[in-house]
Specification:
Blueprint: H1 8-26, H2 31-41, H3 50-66
């Protein structure tokens, strides 16, 4: 279930869940502000589906890796 078949509340949860993971990993403020928004969109699901969790962590990993210098670069 991707794209337009994915419900809006799941898309919102996925998109907003990446931010607190990145903030926590980088030691930045902000994760607390995301929680209420995520909970609002989870009101019908109650929990994040496994497939969504995988996409969330994949996106966060991609973002965090993009900010890391490649091996061997100066």
């Amino acid at each position: 279930m991707d794209g337009e078949q994915t419900t809006r509340h799941v898309r919102e949860v996925e998109a907003e869940s990446v931010a607190p993971i990145c903030c926590e990993a980088l030691g930045l403020e902000g994760p607390d502000f995301c929680r209420g928004y995520i909970q609002h969109w989870l009101r019908t699901e109650k929990e994040i589906p496994n497939q969504s969790a995988a996409r969330i962590f994949a996106a966060a990993t991609s973002i965090l890796k993009a900010g890391t210098p490649a091996a061997g670069s100066h």
